[in-house]
Amino acid sequence: MRKALLAAALSLAGCTTVAGPDRAKPAAVAVVFDRETATPTIVEGLADRETGRAVEANDPVRIASISKLVMALATLRLVEEGKVDLGTDVSNYLGWPLRNPRFPEARVTLGQLLRHRSGLRDDAGYVIPLGESLQAKLANPRAWYADAPPGEAPFEYANLGSPVVATVLEAASGERYDRLVERAVFAPLGIEACLNWIGCSEEMAERAVILYRSTGEVARDHAADRPPHCTIPVADGEACSLEDYVPGTNASIFSPQGGVRIGMMDLAKLGQALIQTSRPGVFSGRVLAELIFSMMATPTDADFFCGYGAGIQMIEVPGHGCNDTLFGDGRPRIGHAGEAYGLRSGLWMDVEGGRGMAYFVTAVPEPVEEDSGGFAPEEVALVRRALAASDR
Length: 392
Description:
By secondary structure, the chain is of the alpha+beta class. Helices cover 28% and strands 15% of the residues. The protein contains eleven helices and 14 strands. The strands form four sheets. A seven-stranded antiparallel sheet has the order 2-1-14-13-12-11-10, with helices on both faces. A three-stranded antiparallel sheet has the order 5-9-6. A hairpin with a 3-residue loop joins strand 1 (28-34) and strand 2 (38-44). The radius of gyration is 21 Å and the shape is globular.
């Protein structure tokens, strides 16, 4: 009776408190979807350990590198609108020459950047705060592969390419990157999402999934990381304001490589649009065809990537030689993985079977060995449980 009264009182107070060992249980959500329906099969753990707030199926979370797939879809929408071309020298959009200093004659294209074949690498860093120069960052030889020009450089997964792509999209469209993504990707799908909390409602920000490391340390998106506090990287002495920001100068401030906040039910809508390309007014069959073609044309030598195309990854292709397995059911899938701040996330689609999964799990330990694989045991276990639950 006392427990019931306590639960009722806490409910009236607007939160749920969890005591004992469950108070540190990592938040995890998995949503299984097909072309028409989306079902949360696992929703567990705490979105906020301090208050004891339990996670809900569509609570927004930083999805890390799945943001690159969102960026690719925005790019392809601009291709359809005739505003950009994947094979054009991006210098034409930026208004200044983007070149690997060692290969000044070799052009850089959006297609190369999206496929991680431009020669860019992360050795010089990839966060360019408001008030600093993207052009100056890219003039640093350490930002480039030294031994081959763009287009001939080997596949090397690099976050630095994303700020370049996003800045090119801004320059070509005249739209700020966050607003472009809202117009081209989120709004047509009825998705509530944002980049670095810019444009998200106050109510959505209050439902944020706080990211914790496996040690229990808060890693990201606690109250001080959310509005009304500054949510973008800002150079020393620079005001945290986008009022005077000029689109096409430095879209790194929106973290296009990993800064999307979105719930798993909404992320599933994006997956549904990709496996149901006949749906009018969203993504045409040409978009999915371009994604798949670019991926098949860009094989990699990495276990984690059976193929990597325009912001999209292929995994678990039978007989390919890529060894990292997630679902383990012998079916290849396309999508993208995410990893940051103790979080593992994924959006994966079995296009032939017309099914997919959107998921995340927090507080995942860092790998103990460099070659321990692309997927963490915690996310493999989550995905297998969700898959089993959906097949019942």
